[in-house]
User: Fold these one by one.
Assistant:
Number 1:
Amino acid sequence: MFGTLGGPRLLLRRLREVMAEPVSPQARLDKIVVHIAANMVAEVCSVYVLRADGRLELYATEGLNREAVHLTTLRTGEGLVGLIAETAEPLALADAQLHPSFMYRPETGEEIYSSFLGVPILRGGNTLGVLVVQNKARRAYPEEEIEALQTTAMLLAEMIASGELQSLAPPGRDIALRRPLALKGTPIAEGVGLGHVVLHEPRIIVKQLVAEDVKKEIERLDTAIGAMRRSLDLLIDRGNMGPGEHRDVLETFRLFAHDRGWLRRLREAVATGLTAEAAVERVQNDTRAKLQRQTEPYIRERLHDLDDLANRLLHQLTGQGFVGTHDEMPYNSVIVARSMGPAALLEYDRAKLRGLVLEESGALSHVAIVARALGIAAVGDVANIVDLVEPGDALIVDGLSGDVHLRPSPDVEHSYAEKARLRARKQAQYHKLRDVPTVTKDGVAIDLHMNAGMVVDLQHVAETGAVSVGLFRTEIQFMLASRLPKMSEQEALYRTALDSVDGKSITFRTLDIGSDKILPYMAKVEEENPALGWRAIRIGLDRPGLLRSQLRGLLRASSGREMRIMFPMIATLEEFETAKAFVEGELAHLRLHGRAAPSSLKLGIMIEVPSMLWQLEEACKQVDFLSVGSNDLIQYLYAADRDNKRVATRFDPLSAPVLHALKLIADTARASATPLTLCGEMGGKPLEAMVLLALGYRGLSMSAASIGPVKAMVLATRLREAESFVLNLINEAKGGHSLRDKFRKFAKSKGIPV
């Protein structure tokens, strides 16, 4: 029962006034506990703050021994206060001393108090501390008092988050909100980035917590809920998507927006005296704290849905946009986001960007391709990163190991700064190798080509000394556009690309979409196994207008110049023959309209479907060149989806089954004198590249950043020695065990940098 001081709304107003007073942080906190105790008719009110070392420290109290402040500490999980911090749930007890977690602390003088009510101080679902009230008499705290104390805890969370209480902590005893965290994710793009956090979709900071007119706030809440529901209905119902898993997911999302329990909790939070925005934040804080502690994957996955709904509702209430202003982006920025489309990353100023950390996207996502093209250190699959960071936090991104250091200690920061300097020195050394012929120690010439997908990539051709662009991913243009690019737009891009490489050749791969590469303006086709489904050349042959438009753009752009076109996902020679007929048709169209044809036209295929292993000899008679797509070839050889974390790393490319298949391709191409390159990820890793050379590959295509390390490996290798070791090893190998360690030991013994 609240006292005569006016209930929770008046308490919130009074606490707001205290927050605005020009007093020291300790004096402010001392006043807050006095007001809460008086309003709740409690003899005790105490605030415990979670420290970086995981202990809860008594920061202020009214009713207990004041001398215990900053001296009394508890471990998380220890005593009633520790239990609340561990579970992130309120605890109300009429007789606290009967609870199994009750622990008597003589220095506080709390042995005379029976009743206990404690609530977690939450921000983003993370526990920052615990707020407690106690009474001498046995007392059953009603639900409205628990709600009121939870609401009050929001103000304390704001105070802690502001950093104000950090000044009360002695050196080495940081509060938990500012503690250093070492996180692990999936490497996306190599490099080391040191900078400060910029949220891609900035959180809405709720500044007005106290409602002036509760009835008006409930009306605002209901209006925003209605607007949010209508926007979801439009999202789901437009486009006539038809049945499928995507529809089921969105329908489930819509059900959450109509969930009575969620809506009831929002209205109850407003009724305690909060603004509509503060109510949304309060309910989502509680929900996130509970779901984060669930072990059931399905329940934890629902957390993202509820986060999204709460975020949408906050934007409806405030009218704020989802993306921050790029003009205000500081230097040395590290972008942090739950997920991000590839076009969004390009909107940021590259000169200010040092790194990218994503909560959901992995190494094969579309934004990962763009990050690698821009040379930005990037890590994905970092759990809960958006809720752990604050804008401006120091952040280190290690794109090679997948390590992310949030608020790093000076030692860690110094270590990574040195690592970044070392990387820069290595890059400078690799740059010196640019004009050095890529020849092994025993005189075998190797061609190193570069993979690209955007015009911005092509500046690296000259910088790295790449022989050519061995793979130009034409689908990137389609992925970044808001609509299907016109033929004239495609032609302009291809012409600009050819103009950018100073006469060197570019191998353009025709549109490789489907599976994980879905164009935002094309309806997604639901398939049980999309990696085995309607994708790449299969879409082009079934939608000839799409393929012909691209071929026409490529042929027009290369007027009077060499043009190399490569078809992906060829499973049968008949597919290549049909695609070749389309090219011949477009050449006839050029001549009919008096346009100049390419001076030289080469057509090739990617070997990435295992069925082609038994059509290689015939393929070599029909194509001008071959290129191995090792990423897809390996996933199909092992029937292991490379986008599935459970199986993606289950098999090692450096094992005998894969290497036998790759050797078969190299031997067949050599026998027929058919030019051959490998453009998958294997070619850009020095150890894997060394093995590929031993198998007979003389052309490798890779990212710009990989050319230097691979060239250094080539220059240090005696190929005959490597061939002898590799071939003997794979011929003697039994089963499919990884041979990686043995290859690495060989390289080390020969002084080959891998």
Number 2:
Amino acid sequence: MLLKLFFSFIFIYLNIFAIQFSTEEINWIKKNYDKTFNVYVYNPKHIYLYENEDGNLRGVYINFFENITNQTGLNFNFKSLEKSEMQDILNNGKGDVIFNASKSKEREKHYSFLPTLNSYTLGLYSKSDTIIDFQNLDKYKVGLIPTTSDFILLDKFYPDLKNKAISINDKENFGFWALESGLVDAVVGKSSNDILKNYRFTPFENIPSTHLWMAINKNEPILESIISKFKVEFTTKYVANVLKNERPIFYKQLLSKELIIKRVQRRYSSLKVFIPEAKGMLPLFYKTKSGYKGYVIDRLEELSKLTELPIVYTQNPNDDYDIKAIDSKLFENNSNAYFIPYYKVQVAAFSNRNQNFLDTYQSAENKKVGIISFEKINPYFLNFLPNFKFYKIYPDTDSALDAILKNEIDYVYADFKIMSMAIGNRYLDDKVQVAGFLGNSPKIGFGIKKDPDLAKLVDKIFPNHLAEIQILQTELTVPKRLSPNYQYLLFVFSSMSLLIATLFYLLRKATIASKKEKRITKALVESFEAANELNDEDTGNHILRVNLYSKFLAEKLKCSNKFIKEIGEYASLHDVGKIAISDMILKKPAKLTEEEFNEMKKHVIFGKELVQKMQLGPIAENIALYHHEKWNGKGYWFGLSGDAIPLEARIVALADVYDALRQKRVYKDGFTHDVAVEIIKKERGEHFDPALVDIFLIHHKEFDKIFISH
């Protein structure tokens, strides 16, 4: 027993560096190293939590808790429960951790609720030949499973429909039995329920997307704190890798009774995939020394694991291929029998810095314009170009960029993401600009030449539900550098060498006096501040003022001296993560699209990772990660609400917004102090902590003085 205790403590201390635990948390982990915590799961039928053929739970969150076990030694026992058992546990405050639970005020007495990664939208399921008309819902018989989160959401947004709906039993099948039996025309359900896409799903127009919850018993507040910290570390990239490994296993089990996999295996010894000769279509695919990479390749590799058939790539369009990796109805040779879309093109115009901004196709008439396409485009798609003086199709991004740089063309129409990454990889951000976004959104997808079973299999396993799309499609948004900019690297290396030499000298001196150590930290912070200012030319003295506002609020709250000092130094790092966001988005002179805004949101994750590497402590990390959370829970990245948002992040949120309102930007004029005060006053209890707004309103003139003085 003593030997086990000794090795457990050694294990904890060897791994404790991965997550920054408090002294209280470390002591709690030591005390509970041999305790097993019960994790109860309701309805584990999604890739985040599901039962394998042996009845054991698998999925993303099993990996999550294994990660906690590996780094802390804490043990977790997973158990799947029936609905009645789960309701009994929730209503009586039993269990340590509970998955897939509905959140309610009554249950919040016993549990703290954390959002899981399993996101979904609510809508109506109908048979494939029934199109739901939301303007005339009265003509449908709608089925609803009571006592579920679906019931709660419908009661809030569509109370009339909830009252008229037919109450049905789920029978462990999400109520689809009622649809098949003809008892109802439609069933209320989550977008992730129909995993194999057997039914038509129509989302409710007025209900926002939400997520399933992880409930943690309030009797274990330290456990909640530890799980929350690991949740932050469970990054999108890490989850995407787990999903790639789990998806073939998950879908193979789901499809085992349909025989579709066996039919495909009998017909093929390998799957031949035609992929274009284009040098690369980042982020869809690109070629490295080890082979093809990218979002499309990941999906094909999943298909290979599922069918146990190797993928053979060909670049000859005349080969008798089975799957076309990049297909579109825009292509002239779109003769494949089946088309499964996976990517929506966002058409944008690109030009050199001397050209005007475009907002319509007509504004580019009588200009020299090109289009990027590795394959001939259908003539009907080119009908919008009748008055162009010069028109040419470029086979890849490189040839189109060369044409822009040589002034052979004025504009080129291309997909925003693909072209933006190509510009980034050639380090042409200062020479080529986005010149407008246009309305067309054609789709790209897989073309299946002839086999309906292969087409059906590809369609069924393709990530089509919100829970998977939000994670896996980060591959389509995260910029990739395929080749280094050696001139830039030389400059950075020289600058960093000088900086490192300076810091090394300061570090050596710091061992003699602690005051010198503080100078190093300050130098690092100022370096990141300077980098952030260079990245956003509109910033000016914004970060300095945010420091001063935040420190002022902390003083009025009578926070500890340490807290006041740190927030006064580190509030300026709130937007440091924007260093990792593309200039195409940061400096776009127009409203961001939903996809671009989702990319912009990631700056809080990048910022937290940068600050963490600087080892500035939890206050700095919390500022970077949580400063866009809102008191009402409608902020991002985690949708935290109320006191769940760290105080330092609530303070910086108010300071940041006040200064942003006052500051003049490229896309807006600055507001007066009085207008800014009124806006913040209206957001009391919505965006901002009511107590902080009250302090702000008492001392708002000090904010005006800080803004004017700096």
